Amino acid sequence: MSELSIAAFGRYLPAEVVEAEPVDPAVDPLGANPFLRPPRTRHRVGQGERAAEMIERAARPMFERLGMDPAGNVDLLLTNVLLPDNFITGSGAEAARLLGCDPELVLDVHNSGCASFPYLLRIARSMIVSGEARRVLIANVQNTAGQVYAQPELSRTNSALTAGDGCGVAYVTADEASPVLGVHVRSTPAFAADMSLVTGSGRRYWEEGPGEVEIAFAEERQKEIIERGNRLVPEVVGELCSKIGVGLEEIDLLVTNQPNRIFLMKWRNTLGLSPDRHFDTFDRFGNLYAAGVPVTLATAAAEGKLRDGALVVMAGFAHAGDFAAAAAMRWHSG
Questions:
Q1: Is there a domain that residue 112 lies in?
Q2: What are the beta bridge partners of residue 140?
Q3: Residue 113 within a domain
Q4: Which of these three, 119, 152, 176, is where a domain ends?
Q5: 57/78 Cα distance (integer angstroms)
Q6: Three-state SS for 171?
């Protein structure tokens, strides 16, 4: 699959930094458990900060490092934004305008959730192979921490205390510089109804009325959903490695979505990877949802964790487990 390569990663983290409150074991015994504590720090979008602006702020420095102008260098813009500022138009066109580029194709992909980065790589590969594009900008935006999770009642929940905001981008090209070796996806529509958007009052999210909008999981299947999440990432990683003919022991760096410390620990233990081979940013940035993989990859690159020639595997699962995906690349820093 050498027709696809990742040239660079970029990230943007909003200016507001939220620090975790000290935990009193007498008041919250579970919170004293290091695996259950909220992240040490996380970022939140500012009032009025738009998803397209986050994409521009992540992508422009990346293009500057590459020594190129986005104008004339993006044929396809792929976005996945958790909370689109405009549910009719999406965020891609506005992001292109801010970057000063005019891609022939703009696709705002709203499905595939926390596993969307490998999924967007698969779409990019299809477009490159078909000849529709040669230079692709991929952008993942998580922007609910400072908006949805800022609602008064919801702000006290565990989900709100672990969520962080940020944007991760990647520049994908039709060459073999840092080749993408394979992408593997698994879709299980039967699980899609296990997660839903609720308001408490029964109103639909766009209708006026009481009740804060929040994400809810099927209560009678909570244990099953957690077990599903523990299982899915190691399974798709194993299936991907088998597909491209490499062993799990050959993985130099695994980067996954970052839901919580327990999932991260279980995933690497199941795969037999030491913590230094499973790079995560949870304690610094919190749960970044779909942006977790590209933001963490950009962080790894900036901190010298992506060594030349490394086999890097990216993976995640979405929603209540109706979608999971993994991708592998051979990274070359030059």
A1: yes
A2: 80, 168
A3: yes
A4: 176
A5: 16
A6: strand
Residue in 228, 315, 212 with CA at minimum distance from that of residue 271: 315
Overall domain count for the chain: 2
On whether the CB atoms of residues 92 and 108 are closer than 8 A, the answer is yes
Spatial CB neighbours of 314, under 8 Å, sequence gap ≥ 6: 117, 118, 254, 255, 256, 293, 297, 326, 327, 328, 329
Its domain, for residue 12, covers 5-176
Please state, in angstroms and rounded to a whole number, the distance separating the CA atoms of residues 285 and 182.
Answer: 28
Using a cut of 0.85, tell me whether the model's pTM lies above it.
yes
Helices (H), 67-194: 92-99, 116-129, 158-162
284/18 Cα distance (integer angstroms)? 10
Distance of CA 323 to the CA centre of its chain: 13
Q: Pairing relation of β-strands 311-318 and 166-173? A: unpaired
* The residue type at 312: V
For residues 163 and 149, what is the distance between their CA atoms, to the nearest angstrom? Answer: 8
pLDDT tens string for the chain (334 positions)? Answer: 458 999 999 999 999 999 987 655 655 555 566 667 889 999 999 999 999 999 999 999 999 999 999 999 999 999 999 999 998 999 999 999 999 999 999 999 999 999 999 999 999 999 999 999 999 999 999 999 999 999 998 888 888 999 999 999 999 999 999 999 999 999 999 999 999 989 988 899 889 888 899 888 998 998 999 999 999 999 999 999 999 999 999 999 999 999 999 999 999 999 999 999 999 999 999 999 999 999 999 999 999 999 999 999 999 999 999 999 999 999 998 6
- Do 180 and 125 contact (CB within 8 A), yes or no? yes
Determine the Cα–Cα distance for residues 235 and 316; give it in Å rounded to an integer: 10
Give me the CATH number covering residue 62. 3.40.47.10
Spatial separation of the C-alpha atoms in residues 319 and 114, rounded to whole Å: 7
Instruction: Answer yes or no: is 206 within a domain.
Output: no
Question: How far apart are alpha carbons 89 and 84 in whole angstroms?
Answer: 9
Kind and range of the H or E run holding 180: strand 180-187
Distance between alpha carbon 192 and the CA centroid of its chain, in Å? 19
Quickly count: other Cβ atoms within 10 Å of residue 247's Cβ: 9
